[in-house]
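Worked example 3 (structure in, sequence out).
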């Protein structure tokens, strides 16, 4: 009589996912949920009502081409002028904050803390109307353009000063000491060795500051500008009051994106290039 030995069945363990597979699965689930939410919102939206309130193409036709030739161009001019002013003043303040002279450090520190704590709208208003009242007969070069350059630039300079200071301090001290041992003066060392290297570090944050100035140009309305001096927000507000429709605001937002998106892309490229160089 033969006997047959039986063995207990063994369970085959399911293969475990690798870390990369789990990451892909998680990303796929997130994408699926995002698409589902967007699809649900698109399905529930009353597109007829939404289009009538925000996407009136007849209003867009009336805005063109002045929204570009006046609003967009003036916005770029205001931001560029303020950036140039802030760049020069901010660099000077950064050097003063790092100076061995206590009075320079105190003045630059007080300037930075004050103008970083006061709203840009208040500074712009006080510069535009306070300076002419304090100095009778004084006129800004370029009228409103000069007011905007100084008014927005003063606030931006406080932020740029800190950016420049961080960039200068990022340069190895050994290079400064080596230049001094070769007989170079402190001013020449800063101008020819330290500051040029600091620029490579501060270009990305300075580009971000330019983006902020583009948006801050919307504060120009407090100066009572003429129609030829309108920036994007004021231009859109004027059409909004006449059309009683939000389409001008959407057009202005798209114009702002036409300026800021390329600048944002430039920041990413500069940051990637700087990280690669390191």
């Amino acid at each position: 009589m033969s006997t047959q030995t039986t063995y207990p069945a063994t369970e085959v363990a399911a293969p475990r996912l690798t870390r990369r597979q789990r990451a892909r699965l998680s990303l796929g689930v997130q994408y699926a949920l995002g698409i589902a939410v967007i699809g649900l919102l698109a399905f529930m939206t009353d597109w007829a009502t939404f289009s009538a309130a925000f996407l009136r193409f007849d209003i867009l036709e009336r805005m063109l081409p002045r929204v570009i030739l006046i609003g967009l161009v003036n916005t770029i001019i205001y931001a560029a002028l303020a950036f140039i002013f802030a760049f020069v003043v901010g660099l000077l303040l950064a050097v003063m904050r790092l100076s061995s002279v206590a009075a320079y450090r105190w003045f630059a520190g007080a300037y930075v803390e004050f103008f970083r704590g006061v709203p840009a709208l208040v500074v712009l208003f006080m510069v535009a109307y306070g300076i002419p009242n304090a100095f009778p007969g004084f006129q800004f070069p370029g009228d409103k353009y000069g007011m905007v350059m100084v008014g927005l630039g003063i606030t931006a300079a406080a932020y740029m000063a800190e950016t420049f200071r961080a960039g200068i301090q990022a340069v190895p001290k050994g290079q400064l000491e080596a230049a001094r041992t070769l007989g170079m003066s402190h001013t020449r060392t800063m101008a020819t060795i330290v500051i040029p290297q600091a620029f490579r570090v501060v270009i990305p944050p300075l580009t971000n500051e330019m983006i902020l100035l583009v948006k801050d140009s919307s504060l120009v309305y407090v100066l009572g500008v003429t129609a030829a001096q309108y920036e994007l927000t004021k231009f859109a507000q004027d059409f909004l009051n006449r059309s009683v429709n939000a389409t001008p605001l959407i057009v202005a937002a798209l114009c702002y994106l036409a300026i800021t998106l390329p600048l944002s892309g430039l920041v990413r490229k500069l940051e990637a290039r700087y990280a690669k160089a390191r």
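Notes: The chain has one domain: 58-277. The chain has eleven helices and no strands.
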